[in-house]
Design goal:
Strand order of the largest sheet: 1-2
Structural class: mainly alpha
CATH class: Alpha Beta
Largest sheet: 2 strands, parallel
CATH superfamily: P-loop containing nucleotide triphosphate hydrolases
Radius of gyration: 16 Å
Amino acid sequence: MGAGKTTIGKQLAMKLGVQFVDLDLFIENRYRKRVGEIFAEKGEDAFREMERRALLEVSQFEDVIISTGGGAPCFFDNMEVMNNLGQTIYLKVPVDELASRLTVYKYSRPLIQGKTPEEIKQYVAESLDKREVCYNQAAIIFNVTKSLSTQQEVDTVVENLIKVINE
């Protein structure tokens, strides 16, 4: 959450001339409900099942960049599936930078609404501690240290990512 998966993914897809799919948005369109509503109504287990089915579906698309939610790689064998079907990228962002980004957008993120900046930082650190073992299984681990607050910063990150992908 907050790593820039959608921002970078859209720009990367545009530069590479492929389609872009945000898995959470795909799920929201399919079920006509926001992810937060699905969590609230059905619970996390049901959401993760829906997410898994959606991931399997979109992973069959050709010439596509898929941005998953932060939890998707860590449930079932999703990371293994993604690694087997395509090239995976972990956008690794320092905890302080993630917390700073999320503090700005906390009202649109159900998991951090109402948290103080320090609580957000703690939440980010704890989440990464649990999930990073999954994230580190990605084919490419790409450090993102820029804030992504300007188009120039996004463009620079995407150009550097393209170089790494092509190596």
